[in-house]
Amino acid sequence: MRSIAALQAVVTAIPFDGEPTDAELDAIEQEMPLILAEVDLLGVEISLLDRPVTELDERRLRRHRNRVLAALRDLTNRAGVALSGGAA
């Protein structure tokens, strides 16, 4: 059985400073329209939890779902262009 002390140097070799890297911040910034659309959809879904859904509520829910899908589509298309180098 190996001692944990033998693995300590490997585990603690790179200290974690708790801050996201620039690449992680860029990824979050690119995904922000999708994140905001999902937050808006969640707000609509929460508002509909404790009451009967009316026709107007169904429209609002459908509109927010479509916004999430559009943001996801745009994010996917941008990722596809970035991966292909922009040459189509």
Would you mind describing this structure in some detail?
The chain is mostly helical and 88 residues long. Helices cover 73% and strands 0% of the residues. The chain has helices at 4-11, 22-47, 55-84. Helix 2 (22-47) packs antiparallel against helix 3. The radius of gyration is 22 Å and the shape is elongated.
Question: What's the layout of helices and strands?
Answer:
Blueprint lengths: L3 H8 L10 H26 L7 H30 L4
Distance between the termini: 56 Å
Structural class of the helices, strands and pairings?
mainly alpha
Question: Strand fraction band?
Answer: under 5%
Integer average pLDDT? 86
* Fraction of helical residues: over 70%
Element pattern in H and E: HHH
Query: How many helical stretches?
Result: 3
Number of strands: 0
Task: Indicate the low-confidence ranges by residue numbers.
Answer: none
Shape: elongated
Compute the gyration radius: what is it?
A: 22 Å
Main sheet?
none
Compact overview of the structure:
The protein has helices spanning 4-11, 22-47, 55-84.
Characteristics:
88 residues, elongated, mainly alpha
